[in-house]
Design brief:
The chain is α/β, with parallel strands linked by helices. It contains 13 helices and ten strands. A hairpin with a 7-residue loop joins strand 6 and strand 7.
Length: about 350
Amino acid sequence: MNPKVSIIIPAYNTEVYIKKAIESVLNQTLTELEVIVVDDGSTDKTVEVAKSFTDERLKVIVNPQNLGVSAARNIALKAAQGEWIAVLDSDDWYAHERLEKLVLLAEQANADMIADDIYFIKDGATSPWSTLIQESGKHIDKILQIDIVYFVETDVYGKAGLHLGLSKPIFKREFLVKHSIEYDETLSIAEDFWLDMKCLINGARFFLVPEAYYFYRSRSSSLVRESRLKRLNQSCMSTSSFMEQKFVRKDSDLMRALSYNLAVYNRNLAYYQVLLPLKERDWLLALRELTKNPSVFSDFISRFNDIIKRRFQYYVMGNKLVFEMPYNLQRKRRKPMHPSFYPPKNNK
């Protein structure tokens, strides 16, 4: 009999974290599962740690060379046999009951994909400092169905919103197979967003659960902190490519939302093409980019107050979390979480 859920864990040089990730899956209240770890050419002891588990539900696949996170996930997808597919980054972890809760709700809603809220937790901390929904500023207290236009409109780079591209839905494997959906291996950033988009454009019933069961660890060396220029370039190309598809062009609301996102990506790309050379004191390159995009000057002026406020919070007020959010979520910090948001101690 096939497992109820296949959990895929791509890993690269996360020997310090992967034990917690695997344990959080093997200790789930839902026990009918398989765990597929794909080591993507690690040079540390990640493989050794993963193979130290004796649970027969765990399978470790080792790539002899680094292929990228999307390729690693696709390898795991091909090997998966579960009714549902869940994704876990090797430096994150699940709450004890996550899979049981989500599978039950997904079956009740006849969902093709379902996501929960996310706890944001700083590396080394014992308690999360916020959640995805709390940072969005939205009040969501019941299960919400997500359509593709809403998904795009609430995930705008640099703007407050749900940013469900950061969420980690579980997917009905039958749906992924039927529509030949897999990760885009040309992407190393925002690959989750575009997998979700492929599902939604193919008619997936996507639901969001307001409770958080996923712990998203923020650490300085993670992929989400890769070059802003790389992220923005990939986002521009992916958005443009998606908009060229005939069935996308037929949806005027979706095209409007994507066009807005693309304009925001391009504006930020022009801004950082000037700002980053300035930080590196490459004055000639910065001047050249500014000449090509003179609107960057007014953009910088409009951002100046926010830049000063963030630095004041960090250097004067000692708020070390002000720069912890992923790039596309950075904004003025809200008040700290109420203690009732914190998970039970046995879930930390």
